[in-house]
Amino acid sequence: MYRYLFSPITINQLEIRNRIAYPSLGLLYSYDSKLNQRYTDFFRERARGGAGIITVGPVGVDFLGSGLLTLSIANDAVIDDFATVTEIIKAEGARAWVQLFHAGAYSHPFLIDGKDPIAPSAVYSKYSKATPREMTIDDIQQVQEAFADAARRAVAAGFDGVEIIGSAGYLVTQFLSPLKNKRTDQYGGSFENRLLFPVELIGKVRAAVGPDVPLTVRMAGNDFVPGSNTDLETPKIAAAYEAAGVDAINVTGGWHESRVPQLPMELPRTAYAFLARNIKSAVNVPVMASNRIAAPEDAERILRDGYADMVNLGRVLIADPYWPRKAMEGRTAEIRPCVACSQGCTDEIFSGRPVYCVGNPQAGFEAKRAIVKTDSPKKIMVIGAGAAGLEAAVTAANRGHRVEIFEKDRDLGGQLWIAGAPPHKHELLEFIRYYRAMVQRHGIPLHLNTMVDLELIRSQAPDHVIAAEGARALLPPIPGTDGPDVLDAWQVLKENPMLGKRVAIVGGGAVGLETALFVAARGTLTPEVVHFLMAYDAMSPERIKELMFAGTSSVTVFEMLDKAGKDVGKSTRWILMDRLDRYAVTIQTGAKVHSIDKGEVIWERE
Fold this sequence. Notes:
alpha/beta; four-stranded parallel beta sheet
């Protein structure tokens, strides 16, 4: 079915079973920079699921570049630990890769014992909130040697391939960027001088691992930071990497501090594949595409249409490590979706907590939450076909129990339909597709339009009842909320009723802000219309952009706290607030609403 996706590929002299790579992603399953059983279980499952490459990383090459929390391969004592992981990955038929890491100015001082980070120049970092120390020539040589030594250890540990991170705003990117590199010696100034550090680094790592070990580099296709490298410069960087000795190039989006979304569901699927295609046009080695490649048909298209030679499935394989196997077997409907919510992965890492997945309860708990077949099947009655009830039903069926689901509405999904209504939240509806397929696969009887009462429970005589009937919208105790012109957020998101020109939303948490965005976006230009108008030069780009954000209702949000969106994830709140601003949504914070009377909100500033 997927001819290109599951064809083998050779990097250097190493054959890989398919075109799917699991890239380096921070997991934070230990706080001592060391591997443990939780890491081992995680990587085993991703390899067992069918990916061609499993990348362990990021793995620090020295303390200043990685700190206390990142895995480290900075000394020989850890070789045996990494050897255990490589053996497990390769035993499942995948190739084991390692990503060597140095954060440069992105190192947080509190993670490196209060020391100053090091970087090409002493330019303040918005990411680490610190000004690094400018690297001396000795520093440069020591870091390059640290990479080379780490690569030797990686080969000794049995890794099939070694990757250097040159993306996301980390050290290599800082040397390349005119924003971060203000040096006046041979490592700064001209484009060629700024290339010198990574080119030398690649040469030293190549010498360390020998000619036959695959060496790759992960690079930004566009920094997406004004004044830094764009997709006009990056092909020349890639060509220099190839000349220096890399065997494949792994292309991603921009920096951590970019104000262009890189990971969440606001980024359209496969949106950055064009960056890989841009690099592929400049080199002869294989190129990998990244970012929001969620569906097998999208991955196949990227390969078939010549955008790239391989695809990275990062968070996608956290959500479902068996994505490759299911795609190969034609069971794509049964792939548990990654909805790009960032809640269990990016938000957790940015908060110093280990990664999990809101859609996959086993991610990061592969051993602890292993599903084991029961020796004594029970009859299970699940009340409610929302996300909780469906997950409970599928899990119980997986264990071998006899399950039936009872739902009062006319379809399954529950509040998923509401959650997926706001702009760019439609990915959440993928859970409905998944659960439909799993209910069908397990042959679980689904009773829709069925209210459950005591009599029904008695007639069914289940061994266990799982009550997952959901919740109701909570209305604040404000006079006037029972008026005919007052709706709760769930009504608006579910029924999409006609609204007036002026809409007030009481409550500026996640639900209130998502609802505000939903209302403000009504009446704006669709992406298809924008493309049409741009293609035919029908209107000025400025006017088209204005109409993209000019809806039919003006929206004001009233939030009692001093800050709106406090319950929105750390990595995505800025995107939501930016979008609200673009749609001209007014947010009144510190606002106490006293009453609602004939369409007027009576409030005061606290």
